[in-house]
Amino acid sequence: MKKTYILEDLDCAHCAAKIETAVGKLDGVEKCTLTFLTQKLVIEAEEEKIPAITKEIKKIVKKTEPDVTVIEK
Amino acid sequence: MTKKLKKRIKRILAGAAVMIGAVVIEKLTGDMYPYVVFSLFLAAYVIAGGDVVKNAVVNIGHGQVFDENFLMTLATVGAFFVGDYSEAVAVMLFYQVGECFQSYAVNKSRKSITALMEIRPDYANVIRDGNEETVDPEEVAVGELIRVKAGERIPLDGIIRNGNSSLDTMALTGESIPREVLCGDEVISGCVNLQGVLEIEVTKEFSDSTVSKILNLVESAGSRKAEAENFITKFARYYTPIVAVCALLLAILPPTVLGAAQGHMAAGNIWSDWIYRALTFLVISCPCALVISIPLSFFGGLGGASKNGILIKGSNYLEALATAEVVVMDKTGTLTKGTFGVKNVTVAEKADCSADRLLELAAYAESYSNHPISQSLLEAYGKEVDASRIGKAEEIAGHGVHVFVDGKEIYAGNSRLMEQQGIFYEAVRETGTVVYIACDGIYLGYILIADELKEDAADAVRGLKEAGIKKLVMLTGDRKETAQEVAGKLGITEVHAELLPGDKVDRMEELMQSKSEKGKLLFVGDGINDAPVLARADIGIAMGGLGSDAAIEAADIVIMTDEPSKIARAMQISVKTLAIVRQNIIFALSVKILVLLLAAAGLASMWAAVFADVGVAVIAILNAMRALKA
User: May I ask the CATH architecture of the domain B338-453?
Assistant: First the structure.
């Protein structure tokens, strides 16, 4: 299943790359792309694992760019 | 301007004011109140760069060393320790100003790129139980009737059931001339209704509608990265640690060596001099200018292309276009319109008839048939057919029609019809379909109907040749004579005709073998029956993507309009984008390397280093935005 998040106030391209790599390594994430310009993070994962993944994504984002807010879509 | 940015600017101004105060007091009082001066500088530093220091500390706690915050903190705190208070504050201020600029520029470019994608309709006016309701387009089902008023965007694909209008398709095709639509026409979502009210029966759900397809395509384009982008990501991973290690060496080695040469510990001022140089190094060690501006350039190029009605599925394809060497084109639907049109009307010698009269007779004779040939005759005639002038009419299958018009007996059809009726006629040897016309047993002339070349087909071929394409090939399932004629007119030298779909793939294999290793092969087709060939080519381009799902799926690049000249346009955009990418890489790297060398030699101040960091980033971003103006 595909899921999209919007990373509001994502200003740093370098951090975006870091977030993308970290999210890609999460358990259950099959595919992950973060487009810096549209501030969109799209992942593909099994449906039942998504709540856990969402939690992890929020943690990763908080760690790399504390100013960014993760919005689920 | 975002709130965050405004807050930042306020802090910068406050920090600058306190710092000026400190400088003035220092100048006036000299060394009388060192603690007051120091505290003021410290206050200015905290106001201007407190958040940077805080982020640095927090990030180290998360195991994130070597981020920008950390580097700036280390550099400026270091400057404090070696006694350059004013410089520490000023560098922090300058860095913050640069960051603001950078964030402003990124936001601005984000806005101008996303503006291109603002084809998403916000609502649909659906008619339910005779009442108009405003709902989310996603809630409208297939078969429901929606109303689109003047100035509104068509939210879903459908067929017009009521009303005529003209549509602005600019956002989808880049075409500025409005498209006329009549009741019964199919319309696609994303177009803007320019006049009157249209009632449209929905034929596709929102998620299958053209708008959703295009948005998906454009938004996921970022995930297929160009080689240059991957290079930068990799480069960034090594660059920062390497520079940071160099800085450490620079701080320790030279003073130690110098000290050892003199036989005792180096003096404090020598240490602080080299530490300063090392700190300057740290400021330059962030690769941000490249990390931001390269993807931005590609994104700008993709945006510029979509403004022209060219949808590219990834930066890798945009990058590959620039090295295209062989272009293989399908004939029907790509270079020709794929529809039949009257090519010429020829009156027989000695016949007492005008060309207009001949066309009129043919149109009347064929007016009852709905064969494509008769449609094109009626279109060429262009006037209403007065049914009362037509008498008895019959169709002779495989031959043509036999009709009475104004009481005259007309035969219109192929050569077999003329022979069957024993009419003396001149056989015509031309490519296309010939309709012979006889009136009261006398041959009047013929009308040639053939597939027409697209208006810009010749421009397309010329444009590709100018863009440096080495080989242009035309593939077609059509007859050899027709293919040769089209190719001759356009100046295409290599033609493979009478191919079955399977043959096309074989030919493609051969062509793939013949090109050079680095050169790319482009295939251009209309997306119908082309899927295997589109997939086999390095870059598959589908023409006339509007409405054709298969084409959007199979191709790497979709040209929304029917214009083959857009291929050359796409190549130009690609070349321009790559030039900008190259400029940015060279510019950013050479400034950084230059400042690194100067800093190592003790010739560059920390100011120059901040410029090499944020200044270069801002310039590179501004340059990247040129890619959008395609």
Answer: 3-Layer(aba) Sandwich (3.40)
**Residue B602, Cβ neighbours under 10 Å: how many?**
13
Q: Does A63 sit within 8 Å of B114, measured CB to CB?
A: no
Give A-chain residues touching B59 at CB under 8 angstroms.
Answer: 63-64
How would CATH label the architecture of B124-220?
Answer: Distorted Sandwich (2.70)
How far apart are the CA of B275 and the nearest CA of chain A, in angstroms?
27
Task: Name the residue among B135, B200, B136 with its Cα closest to residue B165.
Answer: B200
- Looking at residue B545, its pLDDT comes to 62
For residue A20, the enclosing domain spans 2-72
By percentage, how much of chain B surpasses pLDDT 70?
Answer: 95
Nearest-CA distance B110 → chain A (Å): 6
Query: What are the b/e assignments for B210-227, b being 16+ CB within 10 Å?
Result: bbbbbbebbbbbbbbbbe
Question: Each residue of B315-361: pLDDT tens digit?
Answer: 899 999 999 999 999 888 888 887 778 888 888 777 778 888 888 88
* B220 vs B258: which has the higher pLDDT: B258
CATH number of B310-335+454-560, picked from 3.40.50.2000, 2.60.40.10, 3.40.50.1000, 3.40.50.970 = 3.40.50.1000
